[in-house]
């Protein structure tokens, strides 16, 4: 049996929400969930972009300055919510924000867990 993909070629990347969409699209359509508008108001988009940029910047600073644990945890949680909101509302840079967020929290020592992120055995 031959493989479909050459090992030397990069693996195709999909967003976290697309990894199970092919198996669940029919069921989701049957639920008749209300759709979000195709375009969000400019004022909301600008405010969300500013908030995400600021939170991601502060996460980067947390790695440089070693913030106290409660502040760092709060930044991770708030940034996670803001980035997921950007993805949910369909901002054009939503996936880029999510990738940058994942990189920053990994740099800070957090690991992905079932719900959110955790930094095991680091708070001495």
User: What best-fitting shape do the alpha-carbon axes yield?
Assistant: globular
Strand order of the largest sheet: 1-2
Query: Biggest sheet, open or closed, and with what strands and sense?
Result: 2 strands, antiparallel
Query: What number is the mean pLDDT?
Result: 83
Gyration radius, in Å: 18 Å
Describe it:
It is a single chain. The chain is mainly α and 124 residues long. The protein contains 4 helices and 2 strands. Strands 1-2 form a two-stranded antiparallel ribbon. A hairpin with a 4-residue loop joins strand 1 and strand 2 (117-118). The mean pLDDT is 83.
Which properties best describe this structure?
mainly alpha, 124 residues, two-stranded antiparallel ribbon
Topology:
Elements lengths: L20 H10 L11 H24 L3 H20 L5 H14 L3 E2 L4 E2 L6
Antiparallel strand pairs: 1-2
């Amino acid at each position: 049996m031959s493989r479909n993909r050459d090992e030397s070629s990069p693996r195709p990347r999909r967003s976290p929400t697309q990894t199970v969409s092919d198996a669940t699209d029919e069921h989701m359509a049957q639920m008749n969930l209300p759709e979000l508008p195709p375009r969000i108001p400019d004022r909301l988009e600008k405010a969300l972009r500013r908030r995400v940029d600021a939170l991601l910047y502060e996460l980067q600073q947390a790695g440089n300055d070693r913030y106290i644990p409660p502040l760092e945890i709060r930044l991770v949680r708030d940034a996670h919510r803001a980035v997921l909101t950007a993805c949910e509302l369909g901002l054009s840079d939503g996936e880029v924000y999510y990738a940058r967020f994942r990189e920053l929290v990994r740099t800070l020592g957090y690991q992905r867990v079932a719900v959110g992120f955790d930094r095991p055995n680091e708070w001495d």
